[in-house]
Amino acid sequence: MANPTVAIVGRPNVGKSTIFNRIAGERISIVEDTPGVTRDRIYAHGEWLGHNFNLIDTGGIEVSDQPFMQQITAQAEVAIDEADVIIFMVNGRQGITDADERVAQLLYRADKPVVVAVNKIDNFESRADVYDFYALGFGDPNPISGAHGLGIGDLLDEVIKNFPEVPDPAPDDSIRFSLIGRPNVGKSSLVNAILGDQRVIVSEVAGTTRDAIDTKFVHSGQEFTIVDTAGIRKRGKIYEKTEKYSVMRAMKAIDESNVVLVVLNAEEGIREQDKRVAGYAHEAGKGIIIVVNKWDTLKKDNHTQKQFEAQIRMEFKYLDYAPIIFVSAKTKQRLQQLPELIERVNVNHEKRISSSTLNEVIMDAVAMTPTPTIKTRKLRIYYATQVATAPPTIVVFVNDPELLHFSYKRYLENQIRKNFDFSGTPIHIIARSRK
Length: 435
Description:
Elements: E1 5-9, H1 16-24, E2 43-48, E3 51-57, H2 68-82, E4 85-91, H3 98-108, E5 114-119, E6 142-143, H4 152-161, E7 175-180, H5 187-197, E8 200-206, E9 213-219, E10 222-226, H6 237-240, H7 243-255, E11 259-265, H8 272-283, E12 287-293, H9 304-315, E13 324-326, H10 337-349, H11 355-368, E14 373-374, E15 377-378, E16 381-388, E17 393-398, H12 406-419, E18 428-433
């Protein structure tokens, strides 16, 4: 089940991005040592009092060729479509403006919970300015200060009160997978082609929100569920010019999937948006397969596939574990291989290694390449154990976690992969002090 989504909406220059950063904090997963993971700060994961949620900063949505008021409207509409709860941000120093009222009118029709955040209330004297915002009609305004971090906790208390109740999910043994990628890479065509190849379609299950349809089918006795990503409703050219809108949709599908198919367009090659969307799936720890669609459209020789694969490996260095398959939704080339590949990646994603076997591999790796010494202090590895699956997560107990540098951690990961088939899944290695 996808996490609830909280969107921050409001006119420009009211402090949306500042509050976004305050709420997201260190939970924005920026892996500086991992090459190629392109971060876009429009979307992040947040957590408050045990509640996990997705956070959208609509201030990061740019519709540069639209007039000022249409731009605000577009951003508000994106929030309305995507959010379970909306934080309506206003500027406490300026009072209610015409632009605020325009956004409020849109939110009245949204039928979504709205929490008003009055920003730039930096001291006790300015709290009196909050009362003017009762006129917006959304209940009690919440005074906050993005600059000083005041009132953020109280604001989040109000937000999580409005989260939808999530029923206990029914048991589901199917492998859930989704197809993500930028517009026009052929996701919908691939879904139709995959389902057309299957002899048994079990059911179409309506999602909990926005009439998304998850489709189940059976292949070689294994049940699969395609998590819907095709339900993007683009209302006019504004959305067609907002690629970030598709990223938001992809994030919901990623949350609900065991395996994610990152779809590329063979005709157009690799774009920055491809790396951005794939980066979210990688950081979410999902099983990943890179699917190159429209392979039938290229003029090929004996080297074309190797050259394209080399380019993918160069651009997606952080996905070196992900298998690559070249397909065509039009001709159905290699589509029959996809279900077996998805199943294999899912098995690897849920694989568990015994501690004794894992420690043999770790100790052999240390013997081949001794642990580094940093400022006269030598890293000592005592033992390792796998603590979770999906993705496989390994805790390595050491004398000082800060001595386990990224490069040596990557070396250990490579040694683990040499001994066990973890194709298609990331491996998380966490250093812990033995104390």
